[in-house]
Amino acid sequence: xxxxxxxxxIWHRRWETALSERTWDWISSHRPASTGTGRLxxxxxxxxxxxxxxxxxxxxxxxVDTQLLASKITKRYGATTILDEMDLVVEAGEVVALTGENGxxxxxxxxxxAGIIRADAGTxxxxxxxxxxxxxxxxxxxxxxxxxxxxxxxxxxxxxxEALRRGHAILAEFDFPLDxxxxxxxxxxGTRQKLNLALALIADPSLLLLDEPYQGFDRGxxxxxxxxxxxxxQDGKAVVIVTHLLxxxxxxxxxxxxxxxxxxxxxxxxx
Length: 271
Hints:
Helix content: 25-40%
Oligomer: single chain
CATH topology: Rossmann fold
CATH class: Alpha Beta
Structural class: alpha/beta
CATH superfamily: P-loop containing nucleotide triphosphate hydrolases
């Protein structure tokens, strides 16, 4: 059995891990200049027709505020290249969907942009606070939803009362059962994911990085999520969503389809 000191050490390590993966004040200190360069053309991606805004309109709008500038991002694992000089720029008031088959590097790109993992080459600059929602909820199984709101709120500089006020308001918008006092391990998958998404939003970030954030949602909650995307756009937030679901892609301003790097394809097809 672990001693009290060991348990305290384990708790603080978990606390630090949670905060390092969900609050990004340190990364928001550099605001890139938005001087009319618009967005970079993705090198390992292709534009998909049907988004709300055309490429030329976004590229030449000199009044936009760049919130994410990822340049020549490269990531390798051994002999396998996941991303090869990938460029991505997202402006305030823009919703961008990242699609592609498994192994194309969507989650890896998002984790690099959020500061979770390091790229082997390239740079990432953000224009404000970042809210990151991982694909697998980063929750503590023996804490309640309110415990999470307070903990992540404090990590973002919010007092307890303010964290609870903001958190409750966000959870209510996603029909989270606010009277639920159960620890998170006893919540349904969809309910856990709503809390996961609320933690990404609690600090009112200007850039949202969402990795399949609707996992486990029922149909009504799923449509409610896309309605929120419309509102976040209107509020001037920049939103990047990793998604495999194609039905609602017309609600994104741009859709970028990533393809697996040839080195990964060769490894899969090798006899």
